[in-house]
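Quick one - inputs below.
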Amino acid sequence: MTTPALRLDTLSKTFPLGRSLFGPERPGVRAVHPITLDVMPGETLGIVGESGCGKSTLARMLVGLIPPTTGTIEIEGAALDNADPAVFGKRIQYVFQDPISSLNPRKTIRQIMEAPLKLLHGMDRAARTTRIAEIFETVSLRADFLDRYPHEFSGGQAQRIGIARALAAEARILILDEPVSALDVSVQAQVLNLLADLKARLGLTYLFISHDLAVVEAVSDRIAVLYFGSVVELGRAEDVFRTPRHPYTKLLADSAPVVGRPLRAPEGAETELPDPLNPPEGCAFRARCPRATDLCRKLVPTLAPADAGHSVACHNPLGG
Amino acid sequence: MRSLALLARNRLALGGLIVMGLVVFLALLTPALPLKPPNITDTSNRFLPPFSQGAILGTDHLGRDLLSRLMWGTRLSLAVGFAAALIAATIGAAIGIVAGYYGGRTDNVIMRGVDMLMAFPYILLALAIVAALGPGLINALVAVAAVNIPFFARNIRGITVGIAHKEFVDAARLSGMSDARIILTEILPNVIPVIVIAMSTTVGWMILETAGLSFLGLGSQPPVADLGSMLGEARAALITNPHTSIVPGLMILVIVMAINLLGDGIRDALDPRLKSGALNRPLPATLVAPSRQPAAQHADAILTLDNLQTQFHVKDRVYRAVGGVSLSVKPGECLGIIGESGSGKSVTALSVMGLVASPPGIITGGSVHYQGEDLVGAPYRRLRTLRGREVAYIFQDPQATLHPLYRVGDQLIEAITAHRPLSRDEGRRKAIDLLDAVRIPNASARVNDYPHEMSGGMRQRVGIAMALANDPEVIIADEPTTALDVTVQAQILSLLDDLRRERGLAIVFITHDFGVVGQLCDRVAVMYAGRIVEQGPTRAILDAPRHPYTARLMACVPELGGGKRRLDAIPGLPPAVDDLPPGCAFAPRCDRATETCRTGEIPLDKVGDRALRCLHPVTMTEAVS
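Output:
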């Protein structure tokens, strides 16, 4: 059995609310409920969920930008409990959603590219220049971009630069946080294809986070569906939306606009997410769920295997 | 360089710059000028009036030459003022950056300390500092700098908090940068413009404060003079020999005026919001070029656009955002406009009611007929009665279009009363009806909500309710679901679909999503670089696109249920609309393009109910396979 590239063990995050002046300590907001997950080397794990489901918090924990409340992260078998981003940086890197705002407007692309090479790998000037040329070649960027400033680039070019920076750290795992959602559709496909090429060529492992179901399905080997901070379904990409087992996954799949499917609201008007300050007891989805029973009100369902390679956190999963 | 040009365009600031430059130049030159020594007393010649022999500005109560004292005093005052500003800015900015960057407890402790400093009246604080340190110019400088530190600290902290949460700071951290390095190389370059702005607007104030302390005898000590102590010494002779006070007084006035005018100019030139022209008030309706050729009107459609052309004139560049668009929509029909960003779809929509910001926008050609009336060039009063009542808009981001400080009910009532008078009770009833119509549960309670109390989907429903408020005939929806989650999007789309069937609304729906178009729209127009490249019934176009752009755009969008696969990307980027290639704008990215595609005008050919702008269209057999 191979060691997973990335292993999350009961990783969770609770944001403290602080205390009011005289009142008791308040419980805090649970952004991510304990998640246990393995990502295999060379795999792309897609994570989908709607706004507020905790996917960005999860991603930022994985690269050490925020410390987890509980749980551990293991990279290639070695535990990473060190909250120093420079240590994380060499093993796991991050590609940001907004390509322009992830580049410092007052630095040239060369200065941005040199930082990880100099600080993470201690390269001298000559080595850095060669390496940058190599990376730019890999992501098909022209070398004359190096002396320009970020505002001179289109979204697609800036996202390539963001990917190039992540590659410069030589991490083998990339967290891609909505890497194409700020891009135009015709450019989106270019970047997705580039990511696929890089993965094949450099043997990378991806965690691909997106709200766009079709995009996630097109790039992922496996997909985890996140709802209210918990993984509610995990399975092979081709199965998750074709034969969803969790009612929420089915709702997502039915809501996605598909040419030729008649237009109808897949559920009633009230689709508010539960209030994170006052989380419901039992299953977080039960208020919206057509299959909810008494059990769902009392007991939080846990992620359990439904059939081969497909897990679901539901007391009454849809037929398999 | 651009900032300098902007500064020079501001007449007052330029005047300030010239005066200030002159004063600084003379102050620097003072030691080399043939002036009398400033501190030599000559009591036989005391209180000589101005223009006396050997003393152009006269002499003071000890017979010292006023001109010489003025020059040396100005030199001293300027030096102390600038030094104080520099010290206050450096220390204040350092405090602000540390507090803003680290946040949490560090921020709390530092900023409460700063708040305590600010709780004292500044002059009292300065007096206390001088009293503790003893009088003297250096101590006055320290006092003035100290009382101004809080101003810089608070200002810079606010800016730093914003920058410290930007993604590029996270990225720098992942590149292995330490906190100190991030502060120096990532944060500091981005706050320096703010520091410069704050300094330029306060240095005049600091010169005044130093003069104030010297006037009270706490600053420069005799015989050395700065402008403040000159005023202080002349106080006793204010009535008998006013020139001794007027001379230094006028100099203070000139310096502070010049610095303040210059400071305002610097602020205007450096502030990014002002630079982008965000504070320019646009005209109430888009400008129309006098050379515009109106088009003839058409029957049966409720809204018709004919060869509409909208451009943006920025400096010497012309952006052809909309390059001749013809569209029409019938009652009860939904027309989709699909395109990428920069394709001109939103500008087309805004041009209909003259909502494109002018300047820089200008409608240079074509017509927009609403029920037979040409709206382009219609007087503003006419447009205002039609806006919202006949043609209403729904925008992408309801968070930005709803006023955060008013209850949604009041905003709905306001939308109605803009067109007809309504009593308070009637208005409230109508607002509740509207919220019911867009299926907001418990409408009678939620009518009292503020926008921030609602979810994104609910806010967009309010946006739709507002568009419906005056029973318009046409609704133009500009990416109304792009900011929403899929489950909410599905509800909003089905709501719009129901509304147009119930009320016979004509909808123009702008989007970049083929799935949405396929589900909602009867007809669709595909836009590229400001022009329509293909138009026709939605099903026909989605089943068999003829224009290579449509076909390839559809191919590069993954569709749910397709499994893991490689997408057929379109190479290259859309052209910039200020530099369009001749011929077909898509030719540089098109694999079917030939030489003829790159020359001349390619017309939009109508065949049956479809229209196509292409010389080498995808054939029917290719398209279907």
